[in-house]
Specification:
Number of helices of chain B: 17
Number of strands of chain A: 4
Helix content of chain B: 40-55%
Structural class of chain A: mainly alpha
Largest interface: A-B, 84 and 79 residues
Distance between the termini of chain A: 13 Å
Radius of gyration of chain B: 34 Å
Oligomer: heterodimer
Radius of gyration of chain A: 25 Å
Distance between the termini of chain B: 55 Å
Chain lengths: ~625, ~575
């Protein structure tokens, strides 16, 4: 460590101008909060898009009600709505942007950017990230990329409309009539994507370097909190999986701007333009391969930060070590590795052939092993614990079954045969939304409630917390469970009118599971009502964030949850440079309820008592060796 | 606050921060280029056209390879010099590195420039069994329109073309009228281009663009917004567009209100059915019919298009890429602008420096026809000048095959082991062969080719960057042809548009070039602004150069892979 560690205190007195302190800050904590707020706003926007879509699904013949349409200008409505109703084109646009925003602009920046940035350097006892300026650039590139993507809503072309997967040739053909391609939503989506990937790459390089090189004295690999392990693996996933998509993005940009045919097959025909004037011989399948090479690891990039939060919260709020810490570490490493070789299970229907499908089916089933290890370890960690039903714990506890449903409903999709029927139905939507919304988002909510006292010095309000939690839990299930049954009945995921157009043509159609669309169509209204209710019950959370900041109950100490990991050894909130002492670590991360210790928690940074009587009584355990 | 291990290595990892970071960054770069290389493989394996092999000039690429290798060595010397605290030596070696990088980019840009000005056409013949698919390569000549006819542009005394001349691959159209669509924002450039090409001639609005005014008592009155006869200009269209969009908004609002009211009315009447059932019910449809009468009274329907007529027909030449469809009397541009009139002779004037029948042969094979008979029917061989070249090539091929046979006999090879000409040799006439045949006057090719030294093609130095159309002697070998528009199947310069090979070539080498420029900026920064750091903390600067050098090695390594797959294979 640097020799001037105790000068840290002096840094607090060094006054930065406000724009350096809050706007162009290089402090990982400020950047984390910037990521958090920005991602939160994007999440709300993505949520709003979803509610408009859900309106169209449940009430395809009725104009959008005032509480959804007030945000649009008259000119926009005239362009994109038909007599106030959502059109297919608009639905596609919202669908594509909902997916993109939620995944690339919302959950990843919230999990990796916000929590990773705020917590990781604290937990490893580092003064900041290894490259603070790079960290700042990551955030600003992300913001610019996100704004470019979303800005296209206001253009004549509208935003991207070809799904969040942006498959060619559909995506290559969309917006072709626009001569200046820089002004096309579909092109701006790609430019935004390339910027986002650049931001993620810089971020992941920074994270991994920080974790490898800036750990505090005595913080060996197996003493790292699980959170840090999860961030390390997430960093590697972003680092290695994202660039092929960047390659695909650049190729698709070339297709659009330079007229190449990377992903455009020979003889592509459109009703409006006839046979397209392109060279052809491109491969649409190539795009799918490159996309899903990122796309699948991306799922774990979403998931791991949430699991990481839960894995920190459960030991702390059950006063019990994490059950199976080492297996969990190995599981997360293996999970990271396997996630690179499962991608084509998204592509069973492309006709890759049985050999390749079987390979990917096998690896996909394999990857459930480490996933189950993670979830089971967390579940068993509860066993025999003295659970404190604090707000973070309640969210973390709800994460377990919700993520469990999400994971288990994925199994049928892993199998080639079942997937042939379920592919592109609402079953798939139900499955991954169970993973992402009540799973990952609940884990991240838990994290917000858990670290809020460290960030602000005040607890979040319990009453508002419960008012946020219980309705959210109920609404989530009323929103997503019907999707599973609808999917089995054959509801297609891209029906913008919820299936009534299908009913007009083939009301009697019974699908392979013996269910009909007619039976399940009324669920649309239940789900839409749940979605709107869920939106309303996020208000207590937003209020809580603000109210608690000013009037919340003050945290009793720097370590209000009586936790063991290093972030709780800092002042509250931590100043620039984090620690007021030179942190050293003497033991593993989850030393709760040790019988040989007076208190029920034994922080990593607390020096062991070295009196002779204690030494005589027991042999010094290996864990207690200090690093000279 | 100070970040640890910026200068000195951490003991247990043995690395300083930026060294960890650069290796991680390079790992991600490997997957980035890995994605592009696997794209190359995918495109090449599944190409449905003959993949161009060895079409790029090898010599500049080879020189570039050695230049980059040299720079990789000198960047290490520069780093070592810093470690030894020898500033002078560092400067010299870094200078060499940067000069090498610049040379690399210069050679690269020469290669790029040749591609951008090199035209290719896929010939199309409707009555041909394989639709022809012969490919002609060459340079576009300039053309101009004189007295309504497309003619070759002539140079004036100063050796320049007149301002009216254009590259002869344009769509020539005698325009009477042009219609702009107000629903989509018209593309200003089209407007300006049309006005510019029209010159003295004016386009005038065909009929008044009316606006509707609804008075307080509900009566409607129409008023002229843009007068009939108004000259075509951006403000004229913008005024109408603004009005149109405004009325479209009003109408949409009106209709939305009525639709909402209809549903509210049905629900109030006690209709408990789901929305989609109500929407299909007879009561609802009746209600809507009623409403429509009211809507009609209150709606403004502004015309969505504006048509301008030329005072006299104007001859326009437009880039084929902006014309989505064309018929005898109408052109549709990419933004739905329509131009009415008459399609004129839109032939292409090409100085051919390459004839390629490989695509024809492949298509013939797919259809079970012999390649030779398909080639014979090609439009290309109906052009006497081109036929002459092709016949000369057949002579050469005959001699070449005999040579190969002799070689096989000498070695006693039989069956499949015998030497045969490659597809390239059989079906393609390259520019250097054209020059050679021309120099022999297209006569006695067989006799010359049968000799031991064969025909004399331009050497590596003469053809450093490919065919030289500016060389007076050489350019005579390049046959000038006129290709009618109906025989042009697909045309492009040798840019990413031409085929997936050039697409991947430009994408990978372009990205690689950006990496070279990025590396130059970073290394140049250390060279020109590193002195201060060298004096205060030389070890830190050495670390930075080490990291920059690692990146530079990676850039070099990428090229080592690129060179064989794009130039040699």
């Amino acid at each position: 460590m640097s020799a001037d560690s105790h000068d840290h205190h002096d840094d607090h007195h060094h006054v930065l101008p406000w724009w350096q302190k809050y706007l162009f800050s290089t402090d990982h904590k400020t950047i984390g909060i910037q990521y958090g707020i920005t991602a939160g706003l994007f999440l709300l926007f993505g949520f709003f898009l979803m509610i408009v879509m859900r309106w169209s699904i449940a009430y395809p013949h009725e104009p959008l009600p005032g509480y959804l349409s007030w945000i649009f200008t008259d000119a926009w409505e005239a362009r994109w709505l038909a007599d106030g109703k959502v059109t297919g084109e608009t639905y596609n646009m919202f669908g594509a942007m909902h997916g993109t925003i939620m995944v690339f602009l919302g959950v990843v920046p919230l999990g990796f950017g916000a929590f990773g940035n705020y917590v990781t350097p604290l937990q490893i006892g580092a003064p900041d990230m290894a490259f603070p300026k790079l960290n700042m650039f990551s955030y600003w590139i992300y913001l610019v990329g996100g704004l470019i993507m979303c800005g296209s809503f206001f253009m004549e072309s509208g935003a991207a409309k070809s799904g969040w997967t942006n498959y060619s040739p559909l995506a290559g053909y969309a917006d072709r009539h626009i001569v200046n391609q820089l002004m096309a939503g579909q092109t701006q989506w790609l430019i935004g994507l390339v910027l986002l990937i650049t931001s993620s790459l810089l971020g992941s390089v920074n994270f991994i370097t920080t974790i490898i090189n800036l750990r505090a004295k005595g913080l060996t690999w197996m003493r790292l909190p699980f959170f840090v392990w999860a961030m390390l693996v997430t960093g590697f996933l972003l680092l290695l999986a994202f660039p092929p998509l960047e390659a695909a993005g650049i190729m698709q940009l070339m297709d659009r701007m330079a007229g190449s045919s990377f992903f455009m097959p020979t003889g592509l025909y459109s009703k409006a333009d006839g046979v397209l004037d392109i060279s052809g011989s491109g491969s649409p399948l190539l795009f799918q391969h490159l996309f899903w090479f990122l796309g699948h690891p991306e799922v774990y990039v979403l998931l791991l930060p949430a699991i990481a939060c839960v894995a920190e919260i459960i030991p702390c709020h059950t006063r019990k070590p994490l059950w199976g810490y080492k297996p969990m570490v190995w599981a997360v490493i293996i999970l990271g590795f396997l996630s690179f070789i499962v991608w084509a299970h998204h592509m069973y229907l492309t006709g890759m052939g049985p050999v390749i499908s079987t390979f990917f089916q096998t690896t996909t089933v394999l990857i459930s092993v480490p996933s189950v290890i993670l979830l089971t370890s967390l579940l068993i960690s509860l066993w025999g614990g003295s659970i404190r039903f604090t707000m973070p714990m309640i969210w973390a506890a709800a994460f377990l079954p919700m993520f469990g449903i999400g994971g288990l409903t994925g199994l049928p999709l892993a199998f080639n045969l079942a997937d042939l029927h379920l592919h592109d139905t609402y079953y798939v939507i139900g499955h991954f939304h169970y993973v992402v919304a009540p799973g990952i988002l609940f884990g991240l909510f838990a994290g917000v409630y858990h670290w809020y006292p460290k960030m602000t010095g005040r607890y979040m309000d319990n009453f508002l917390g419960h008012l946020h939690f219980w309705p959210s839990l109920i609404c989530m299930n009323f929103l997503f469970f019907p999707m599973l049954t609808q999917g089995m009945a054959g509801f297609h995921r891209r029906w913008y009118n919820g299936g009534d157009a299908y009913l007009e043509k083939g009301a009697e159609g019974v699908n392979v599971f013996g269910l009909t669309v007619l039976e399940k169509i009324s669920l649309n209204e239940v789900m839409t009502a749940s979605a709107i209710a869920m939106a309303i019950f996020q208000v207590p959370f937003l209020l809580n964030m603000v109210i608690s900041y000013f009037w919340g109950k003050k945290a009793e100490s720097d370590n209000p949850w009586e936790a063991t990991t290093l972030e709780w050894a800092t002042p509250t909130p931590p100043g620039h440079g984090n620690f007021t002492f030179d942190p050293a670590v003497y033991r593993g991360p989850y030393e709760y309820s040790r019988p040989d210790h007076d208190e029920d928690f034994f922080p990593q940074w607390e020096e062991p008592k070295r009196d002779k009587a204690a030494l005589a009584k027991e042999e010094p355990s290996k864990d207690e060796e200090t690093f000279a | 606050m100070e970040i640890p291990f910026v200068v000195n290595a951490r003991k247990d990892t043995g690395l300083f921060n930026s060294k960890v970071a650069i290796w991680l960054f390079l790992a991600s770069e490997v997957t980035l280029f890995g994605g592009l290389f696997s794209g190359y493989l995918f495109l090449r394996l599944y190409a449905d056209y003959p993949w161009p092999e060895r079409t790029l000039p090898v010599l500049p690429g080879l020189i570039n390879t050695f230049i980059l290798i040299l720079s990789s060595v000198t960047v290490v010397f520069a780093w070592a010099a810093l470690k030894l605290r020898n500033w002078r030596n560092f400067q010299i070696n870094m200078w060499i590195t940067l000069i090498c990088a610049t040379l690399f980019m210069v050679l690269k840009s020469i290669e790029y420039k040749a591609k951008f000005s090199h035209q290719a056409v896929r010939i199309k013949t409707e009555d041909h069994s394989v639709k022809d698919f012969a490919i002609l390569e060459g340079h576009l000549n300039k053309a101009e329109v004189k007295d309504g006819k497309l003619v070759k542009a002539k140079k004036n005394e100063e050796g320049d073309y007149s301002d009216n001349a254009f590259y002869a691959n344009k769509i020539i159209f005698k325009a009477d009228e042009v219609t702009f669509t107000l629903t989509r924002h018209f593309y200003d450039d089209f407007l300006y281009e049309i006005v510019k090409q029209a010159g003295e001639t004016k386009f005038e609005l065909v009929e008044d663009y009316m606006q509707v005014i609804i008075k307080e008592d509900g009566s409607r009155e129409e008023e002229v917004l843009v007068n009939k006869g108004e000259e075509l200009s951006a403000p004229a269209i913008e005024a109408a567009e603004e009005y149109f969009l405004g009325r479209r908004s009003d109408d949409a609002k009106l209709r939305t209100r009525y639709l909402k009211a209809a549903f509210a009315q049905r629900r109030e009447a006690g209709d408990k059915r789901a929305g989609w059932e109500i929407a299909q019910s007879e009561e609802f449809l009746a209600l809507q019919a009623e409403q429509n009468k009211e809507i009609k009274l209150r709606s403004f329907s502004a015309p969505a298009t504006m048509t301008f007529k030329a005072t006299e027909p104007v001859i326009l030449h437009l880039d084929p890429s902006v014309v989505v469809s064309r018929s005898g009397n109408q052109l549709r541009l990419r933004d739905d602008t329509l131009i009415g009139g008459e399609l004129l002779d839109s032939s292409m004037f090409l100085a051919v420096d390459g004839i390629d029948f490989r695509f024809t042969a492949q298509r013939a094979e797919e259809k079970g026809i012999s390649a030779e008979s398909a080639i014979e029917k090609s439009w290309v061989l109906k052009q006497p000048e081109l036929k002459k070249v092709w016949d000369a090539h057949q002579e050469w091929l005959r001699a070449h095959v005999e040579k190969l046979d002799k070689k096989s006999d000498d070695k006693g090879l039989v069956g499949e082991d015998r030497y045969v000409p490659t597809e390239n040799e059989k079906y393609r006439v390259n520019w250097d062969q054209m020059v050679a045949y021309h120099r022999l006057g297209y006569e006695g090719i067989y006799d010359q080719a049968a000799t031991d030294e064969g025909i004399q093609k331009p050497g590596w130095i003469e053809g450093f960057a490919g065919a030289d159309h500016y060389d007076e002697e050489m350019s005579k070998a390049f046959v000038k042809v006129t290709i009618p528009r109906e025989n042009i199947g697909f045309e492009s310069t040798f840019t990413p548009r031409w085929n997936t090979y050039y697409a991947i070539y430009f994408t990978i080498t372009g990205l690689h070039g950006l990496h070279v420029i990025g590396g130059m900026i970073v290394l140049g920064y250390y060279l020109f602004f590193g002195r201060k750091m060298y004096e205060s903390n030389p070890e830190w600067l050495a670390n930075r150069v080490e990291v920059g050098g690692l990146f530079w090695h990676f850039v070099d390594l990428v090229w080592i892979f690129l060179f064989p797959i794009l130039y040699l294979m």
